[in-house]
């Protein structure tokens, strides 16, 4: 759990607490436990800014730093910076530099507006058991996979041209699942549409069902009965 400090509260630490949910009875009284905060704030308001992959929670940096950079207060802060919290050890891990900002060259030809716009293009997802950093810009969506945490190796496995089926102004685009045949299940937040993208033909197909106000993937319960059965 985190609080969300305002722009005028940057000197205050962001609250970070953990609550463990245990199954069965006789486990004692669970309670919130305070943990050390990060130097920077994690994003709490933007959709798809946090994701769990193999027992680790990954967070994007809070977008309020966009305003700080514009004001000249946030030098060295990159929009694709990622924090990670290990659920087993309940400790923060080393931070990760995302794959997007490293491509920028800060020279005389640097376009600050293009750089600032990145803050609103980035989201996180879990696909095929990997942390995925996806960037949606105009008619393109790039999916970057973190293939090696230790070396911080990112691989752009997909660059999807979306103009044929996804409106340019649709910013809430969420890749959900890579199917066994390689197709990708994608949800559009503003319309509630569920799409299937085929990378072999670069085509989209709509899943015929009612529009969904919210959607998520079920990967197994965090809760278990006292005898170990999953619920």
UniProtKB/TrEMBL annotation:
It comes from the Eukaryota. Transmembrane segments: none annotated. Residues 12-213 form the F-box associated beta-propeller type domain. PANTHER family: BNAA05G37150D PROTEIN-RELATED, OS07G0196600 PROTEIN. This is F-box associated beta-propeller type 3 domain-containing protein.
């Amino acid at each position: 759990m985190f609080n969300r400090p305002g722009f005028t509260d940057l000197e205050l630490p962001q609250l970070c607490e953990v609550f463990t949910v245990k199954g069965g009875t006789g486990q004692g009284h669970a309670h919130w436990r305070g943990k050390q905060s990060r130097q920077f704030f994690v994003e709490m308001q933007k959709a798809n800014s946090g994701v769990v992959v193999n027992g680790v929670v990954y967070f994007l940096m809070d977008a309020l730093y966009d305003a700080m950079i514009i004001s000249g207060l946030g030098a060295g802060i990159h929009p694709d910076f990622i924090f990670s919290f290990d659920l087993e050890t309940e400790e923060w891990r080393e931070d990760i530099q995302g794959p997007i900002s490293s491509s920028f060259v800060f020279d005389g030809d640097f376009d600050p507006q293009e750089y600032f716009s990145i803050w609103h293009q980035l989201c996180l997802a879990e696909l095929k058991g990997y942390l995925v950093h996806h960037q949606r810009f105009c008619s393109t969506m790039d999916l970057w996979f973190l293939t090696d945490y230790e070396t911080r190796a990112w691989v752009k496995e997909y660059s999807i041209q979306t103009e044929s089926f996804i409106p340019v102004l649709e910013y809430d685009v969420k890749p959900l699942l890579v199917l066994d045949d390689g197709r990708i299940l994608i949800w559009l937040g503003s319309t509630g549409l569920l799409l299937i993208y085929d990378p072999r033909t670069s085509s989209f197909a709509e899943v015929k069902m009612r529009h969904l106000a919210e959607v998520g993937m079920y990967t197994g319960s965090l809760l278990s009965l006292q005898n170990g059965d999953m619920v």
